[in-house]
Amino acid sequence: MGTVEEAHNVRVLGSGEQTIVLGHGFGTDQSVWKHLLPHLVDNYRVIVYDNMGAGPTNPDYFDFERYATLEGYAHDLLAILEEFRVERCIYVGHSLSSMTGAIASIFRPDLFHKLILISASPRFINTDDYYGGFEQEDIDQLCNAMEANYKSWISGFAPLVVGGDMDSVAVQEFSRTLFNMRPDIALSVFRTIFTFDLRHFLSRVTVPCHIIQSSKDLAVPVAVAEYLHQNLGGKSIVEVMSTEGHLPQLSSPEITIPVLLRHITRDIVDE
User: Fold this and answer.
1) Which residues contact 137 (CB under 8 A, 6 or more apart)?
2) Pick from 44, 175, 244, 246: most CB atoms within 10 A?
3) Is 132 contained in some domain?
4) How far apart are CA 271 and CA 68, in angstroms?
C-alpha cells in the first residue's frame, strides 16, 4: 500500500475510460459523496479520498504548518493523482476542496479536464470592494466558541451550515463527521479556510470551471459564485440550485445529484 493511499484512505471504485476525483469540504469526509457515488461507478473510474485532518485520517500525519495554506492540500491532491497514474480527470470539489482543486489546476492544468466547484469561495471575509459573507469579528467569535467547547459549538454550527434542525439526517451526519475531527485540528483547518484570500489566484485558473451553488447558503452568498465566474482565467458557468445549505449533496441529493451529473457529462461548450 502506498503511503499516500494509506494516509488519505484513497478508494478507487468503478471502471471507465474517464476518471472522476471527489474532494470533500471542511468537517466532512469521503462519506459525504454517498448519494453521488452510485450514479458514477457504472460509467467512470472514481477516486475518493479523505483530506488530511478529517476524522478517518491519522491525526499524527496532520502537519499544522503544511495545512496553514491551501497549497498543502493541493500538493496532496497532486500526489494522489500521481500515485494512481491519473493523466486527466474531472475533479468535483466541495467547499475547501473546490479551491484546492483550483490551486492544483494552476500547478498542473494538464491533469484536469474540468473542475466542478460546489459551494466554492475564494474569500469568506468582507472587504470594501468584496462581499464574502462574514466580518472578521464573526470568525473570531466562531473560533473562540470552538476553543471553549467544541461539542457545544458543533450543535450550533451544524444546523446553520447544513440548513435544518438537529433532527435532520443531514445535520446529524455533518455533526458526526465534525465530531470525528480532533478539536485542535478542526480549529486549525477552520482558521485556515476562513482567513485565506485566494482571489489573486483566480485569473491563473485556466481549466474550465462549473460553479454549483445553493440559492441559500449561510457560508457562501450567491454573489461569490458570480465573483468566481467573472474572475476565473478560463471558461466558467454558474448554476444556482433551489437548495438550502452549504452541503447540498448531503441535504438535498434529489436536486443536487442530477445537476452534478449534468455538469459531469456536459462541457461548457455544449451548454
Assistant:
1) none
2) 246
3) no
4) 37
pLDDT in tens, 121-168: 999 999 999 999 999 999 999 999 999 999 999 999 999 999 988 889
- Asked whether residue 216 is domain-assigned, the answer is yes
Overall number of domains in the chain: 1
Considering 246, 251, 252, 263, which one is annotated as catalytic? 246
Cell of 266: 456536459
The answer to the question of residue 92 being in a domain is yes
Q: Model confidence over 197-220: pLDDT tens digits? A: 999 999 999 999 999 999 999 999
Beta strand 45-48 pairing with 11-13: antiparallel
pTM of the full structure: 0.96
Nearest CA to 211 among 198, 224, 201?
224
Does residue 95 carry a catalytic annotation? Answer: yes
Among residues 76, 119, 217, 236, the one annotated as catalytic is 217
Residue 150 lies in a domain: no
Could you say which of 8, 50, 95, 105 is catalytic?
Answer: 95
